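REQUEST FORM: STRUCTURE PREDICTION
Request ID: SP-0412
Submitted by: Lab K.M.
Chain count: 1
Length (residues): 455
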Amino acid sequence: MSRSSSLRGRALRSVRSQTAPVDPLDLFDRAGTFYRDRVFWEHPDEDFAIVGLGAAWAFAASGPTSVPEAAAAWRSDLHDGVDLGTSADEAPWGAGPLALGGFAFAPGDHGPAPPWDGFPSGKIVVPELTVSRIGRETWMTSAAMAEAGTDGARVSGALKVLSDILAATPERADGRTAREPLVVEAFSAEARWKAAVRSAATAGRDGAFTKVVLARSLTVRGVRTTASQVLRRLRAGYPGCTLFAVAVGDRCFLGATPERLIRLRGGEVTTAAVAGTAPRGATEEADRRLGEELRASPKERLEHAVVVDVVKDVMTEVCMGVVAPAEPELLRVANVQHLSTPLVGRLRDRLSVLDLVERLHPTPAVGGFPRHAALQWIRRHEDLARGWYAGPIGWINHAGEGEFAVAIRSAVMSGSEAVLFAGCGIVADSDPDQEYAESALKMRPMLEALGAAGA
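STATUS: Completed
RESULT:
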């Protein structure tokens, strides 16, 4: 199927067709030598995955308003002029053309400092080649800035590129990384981070805020694995999470997040308030006990309730018939369990998924509450370049629908080095030792996937 839209005197043409089954992660792996820009997105337990290669169209922002700027660019360049064709001709939700990308946690504070070289405050791209696996179907979309060219020629060209990539040798770590011993370095140091937690708890007791999220990082040197190998391990261990990766040259931001920010599909808006954490138990009985303690904890319930209230208020502003359970559920992944409250509503206005991202981000789950006071405290006390960590990451289609997740449980990889991130919600009665242990627990999946769990 062919689509075209007017773009400042140029035309973005895209051709979409079904193709033979392809594992998008295998494609992401093999395409490293073909494309500088690669994006990967997957819900393993939903059998849904997308890989985007190259950039037929791109928008990058450097200021504090990157999300609304991206929404405006998408609306003017990709949405208004798209020929939607007939409804019978539509492909499944998640097939191209799509714009994929992400945004910094706090775009106004984001700079080019390491490890975030190549990651601006916000960026979305329409890939030259997009492959979507949706259940048993695989859809391929090729896109280019062009004024001429037949659909058949473009499909044939895309199929040739796809064939060449799949015939390529997968990326191997041994040939490109230093054979040095694994070294793990914490930033900030444990004592310093605990002191910051203590200071935040004191500020909470003094009424500065109800909750603030404090993050820290680990740097792992001597990594002998590739981003694709890390993703395969995360896929196997955390199938209920959203896997994501944004590669720019040899630098890749990737992770497996349990937290959906927003999904807009068929006019239905779904999100989830996720906050409050406990470890998994070694036995079924221990696991159940830890979950019950999590549900009963006043500290964890307060942390969770703050997120629910804010998310529900935003949903009520833009949706009809918002539904949320009265009590939180337990969201269990391999290493931790969270309090989670799903929310569903019907979109009232003509808004895109990016418009909803702008309203929601950052939720108290990754920033704090009240938002302004918490973010001000983070700017003054968290000596860490969050970059895209805890920012929105996802995709939007030609109709303005799509999905964004919160980029937590994540790392930036570059050569033989990786920088990992984790954060904890701090309230008035937070204990520094417990919060540090929780942050270490949240980093464990990525450390294990990097082969650094015992370093």
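NOTES: The chain has two domains: 2-167, 183-226+259-450.
Reviewed by: T.R.
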